[in-house]
Design a protein that fits this description.
single chain; mainly alpha
């Protein structure tokens, strides 16, 4: 059985049609396994893990934006009380 690294290496050699076929096969496996699917349509599936990952990325961006706003809105002497 090929390893994930071997499979990943071979993917770049596949045509677009072959990649679409692989993608459909993977989506069908998710459906067959009932893998906590949140969204499922002809274009693919959205799982709980996808939702967690996307949420974490958004929260990280919001935290960075908040940090930038905090740094821009106060001088170091004002902010030292809160840190």
């Amino acid at each position: 059985m090929p390893t994930i690294q071997e499979i990943t290496a071979v993917l770049s050699n596949l045509s677009t049609d072959e990649l679409h076929h692989i993608e459909r096969a993977i989506h069908n496996l998710y459906r067959a396994r009932c893998e906590h699917i949140i969204y499922d349509d002809d274009y693919g599936v959205w799982t709980e893990q996808d939702q967690i990952s996307a949420s974490a990325a958004v929260f990280n961006l919001l935290d960075k934006e908040e940090d930038l706003e905090d740094n821009a809105s106060c001088s170091s002497s004002q902010c030292s009380v809160f840190r």
